[in-house]
Specification:
CATH class: Alpha Beta
Radius of gyration: 18 Å
CATH superfamily: Ribokinase
Number of domains: 1
Number of helices: 12
Number of strands: 14
Structural class: alpha/beta
CATH architecture: 3-Layer(aba) Sandwich
Order of helices and strands: EEHEHEHEHEEEHEHEHEHHEEEHHH
Distance between the termini: 28 Å
Largest sheet: 9 strands, mixed
Strand content: 15-25%
């Protein structure tokens, strides 16, 4: 019997969230709805623009990172998880490590943390609930095979690879080695495409991961179309199925398209008054992975994941409090 339900690997970030309007994004020259990698001095200038020139205030701060959000959701639902990441021995790293520990995620961080700066993400939410992000990777840019725990990975039912890792040479190598360890141990491999910008700039990297063997792909419709070159939703799904046997593709408020290896279904979304879409895909993936781990069908798992995402987008932030998960999803 496997010791962990899901073993995740990804960039460890602490998220700082602001409410802005489209005019601010234009002033900051940021592409709406996308994630942009920035350096430390660019981050400092953006914070000055946000807080001093436009007088925006922080509305929420929490540990984040795409795969971390997914792994935390699984743990909060009752799953057993392990997360490989890299944070520094600084105050931000302490905050990140403490939050993962509070929800029961086991990590590699107990083995010590190097000096440096922990990665940070600025998330800007517009009135239409769309999120635009800038990320200073900090020390997580150097995430490598050193952060892997092969024994824990071999003891997991599923590996979950964050697509943002393709932007780093060492991170991409860590993803490939984790994939190899998983294959040898009989651990299933899942991959999330993470962001349209990643697919646009690193398509070849995703092609390589798929060619090495991915069992389950998570993505949204825009990412799927970019990766497959498809113009229609159906063609995008067909393209994904040619790359990977199992598919979970989110389609915004319409729900999600899932393929379980035999049949393809569009599972309707759950109506919600969205205020912030940050982390919706991460929550969907976490709830979906937890549900199939409980023996649910892909269709039922997608229905549960749609519900989880609808609860998430109705509040600010990329994660739900454990009490709310228990009340709204497990009650």
């Amino acid at each position: 019997m496997k010791a962990y339900d899901v073993y995740g690997i990804g960039n460890a970030l602490v998220d700082t969230e602001y409410e802005v309007d489209d005019a601010f994004l234009d002033a900051a020259r940021l592409p709406k709805g996308m994630m942009t990698l920035i350096e430390a001095d660019d981050r400092d200038r953006l914070i000055q623009l946000l807080e001093q020139e436009h007088e925006h205030q922080v509305i929420k701060q929490a540990s984040g990172g795409s795969a971390a959000n997914t792994i935390c959701a699984i743990a909060q639902l009752g799953g057993k998880t392990f997360y490989s990441c890299k944070v520094a021995a600084d105050e931000t790293g302490d905050f990140f490590m403490r939050e993962l520990g509070e929800v029961g995620v086991t990590t590699n961080l107990d083995n010590g943390r190097p000096h440096g700066i922990t990665g940070k993400c600025i998330s800007m939410v517009t009135p239409d609930a769309e999120r635009t992000m800038t990320t200073h990777l900090g020390i997580t840019q150097n995430l490598s095979t050193s952060e892997l725990n092969p024994e824990a990975l071999a003891g997991a039912r599923m590996l979950y690879i964050e697509g943002y890792l393709v932007s780093s040479t060492s991170g991409f190598e860590a993803a490939k080695v984790a994939q190899e360890v998983a294959r040898e141990a009989g651990t299933l491999v899942s991959l999330t495409l993470s962001d349209p910008a990643m697919v646009n700039h690193f398509k070849g990297h995703f092609d390589e991961l798929a060619g090495r063997g991915v069992d389950l792909i998570f993505c949204n419709e825009d990412e799927a179309r970019l990766w497959t070159g498809a113009e229609s939703r159906q063609d995008a799904v067909d393209g994904l199925k040619s790359l990977c046997p199992f598919v979970a593709m989110t389609c915004g408020a319409e729900g999600a398209v899932v393929h379980d290896g035999n049949s393809t279904r569009l599972v309707p979304g759950i109506p919600a008054k969205a205020v912030d879409t940050t982390g919706a895909g991460d929550m969907f993936a976490g709830a979906f992975l937890w549900a199939i781990g409980q023996g649910k069908s892909y269709e039922d798992a997608a229905g549960f994941a749609n519900l989880a995402a609808s609860v998430l987008v109705s509040q600010f932030g990329a994660r739900l409090p454990t009490e709310l998960i228990r009340a709204e999803l497990l009650g």
